[in-house]
Amino acid sequence: MRLITLFVFAAAVVAAPAIDPGVPRFPLPDGFPTPNPDQLAEIQRLAGGTLPNQPLPTNLSQDAIATLKLLAHNELYEVAFFAELLTNITTAAPGYGANDTAPLDRLLLVRQIEAIKNQEELHAIAANAFLVSAKQEPIKPCQYTFPLSNFQNAILFAQVFTDLALGTIPAVQLLFARNGGPASRNVITLGSILGSEAQQDGFFRSTQRKNPSAAPFLTGSTGAIAFNALRKLIVKDSCPQPLSSIGLPEWGDLDYFSAQLFINNYIDSELAIPEPSWPYWISSNPQSKNGTFSFFVAGLSAAPNESSIVYLSGQNKPVAVPITKYLRSPGDASATFKAEFPFEKEGFANGLTIAILARGLGPFADAEAVSAAAQLGPVVIEIH
What we know:
Distance between the termini: 10 Å
Number of helices: 9
Shape: globular
Strand order of the largest sheet: 2-6-9-8-7-10-11-1-5
Order of helices and strands: EHHHHHHHHEEEEEEEEEHE
């Protein structure tokens, strides 16, 4: 049986007026994000290594700076996520007790999540060090929302945002390489962060009894794609620095019209409609991964014959598919449409697939070209 997981980072999550009391406040007890030398030494001990001491770049392009700011935001989010996850496990919060984490060894699990949290703290400190060296203000933490109703959901969600990070860090490496000069040396440092995240992702997948690696070539992303996914997990107006200061484009929201996933005319009648704070649902089909998705948008600036759903999967060229069954509400306040999901026909990879509503019918050369034409999204799809 094949499992398709769809992640909709709904705007309703972003506009939450208050944070769950369990969400960690900064600074954390270990002093992060600005630990003193003794606290930093302890973070490094728990993380299993130290911050790099190689020279940092002092001159970066605006594109590289924008993507680094996004990377720092993403690392801060991950720190907050794993800090809350660790607290939920150690306090045996509902959904995180011994029965919920079985058959895992809880002492080992705490040590593993603690190591990941501290590694993410060092990743965030390193990203901000890049920015400071390039004469930019370091990124400060925001307030965040998390879909952490239980341990299994939390691990699945950690896998998904790590998949996005694995697709985005190479885009930062590319920008550093284009900068040339001393900055290109830090492509290696970013590669080491990429490897650390990949090892973490293998742990998340193995914990769910999946293959540790999803595919031979993982899906690429861009800073703009990651930014538009991340911003929907940030509590509105909670950032000390406005998100607009990152310098990446903000797209509209792309959501599903209903909590039903249509695959080859198959509808999972037992599929539960998720709570508003839970940004995805799960459906399975034992026959095929091909199907049709149903979308909802709050508005659409281009006519349907001028836009398409574009899928990014593996290291293949983007696949653009036309919109069908397009309907506008009275007054053009919203619209619904469907689009084919040609997983097997187009040779999509297992793991992460990204869907974006883009201007034009293609072809699109790569993820950067898709980002440049993007209108709405992303929708994150996981094939297990």
